[in-house]
Amino acid sequence: MEQSGGREKMTLILESRSSNEKLARVTAAAFFSRLDPTLEEVEDVKTAVSEAVTNSIIHGYGGGPGEITLEAELCDRELTLRIRDQGVGIENVARAREPLFTTRPDEGRSGMGFSFMEAFMDRVDVVSRPGEGTVVTMKKRSRERQDGMG
Fold first, then answer.
1. At what angle do helices 113-120 and 39-55 cross, to 10 degrees?
2. Which of 59, 76, 94, 141 has the most other CB atoms within 10 Å of its CB?
3. C-beta atoms surrounding 123 within 10 Å
4. Which one of 55, 78, 95, 123 is the catalytic residue?
5. 47 phi and psi angles, rounded to 5 deg
């Protein structure tokens, strides 16, 4: 972990396997906890990370081998997360972000991954190139706690 000028950064590199989705989710939540977020904010981050990492595993690598990088940064009560893979990439990002769109209906995929990320995070950006991979950048601002906790 690196800290400089009020910023803290962390990078986690995972193998593309479903068992690592939980590790990514818990690690991002623990890092975010430095901002003393509400429980609801922590759950939002965990859900969004879970969706992004699962997308990399299922769609980026088709369940096969690969590497997923989770980069996290804290600055001024805001968490920035980048989930990066070098998988197959997304042909049409706008279409992939449509609710209920999935390239894997045969596996019971709902096509709601990006919709969930957008619902739980303040901002979601997706950059992808076919054959090169995908980067999902998400931001979540932790509100000042009013409950006297923390």
1. 150
2. 59
3. 13
4. 55
5. -65, -45
Catalytic annotation present for 55: yes
Q: How far apart are CA 52 and CA 129, in angstroms?
A: 16
Q: Is 7 marked active-site?
A: no
Q: Which tens digit of pLDDT belongs to each residue from 116-135?
A: 899 999 999 999 999 999 99
Specify whether 92 is catalytic: no
Residues 82, 109, 118, 141: which is the catalytic one?
Answer: 109
Assess contact for 137 and 80: CB atoms under 8 A.
yes
**What is residue 124's DSSP assignment?**
E
* 21, 25, 41, 51: the active-site residue: 51
The closest alpha carbon to 125, from 77, 67, 81, belongs to 81
What is the reported pLDDT for 63? 86
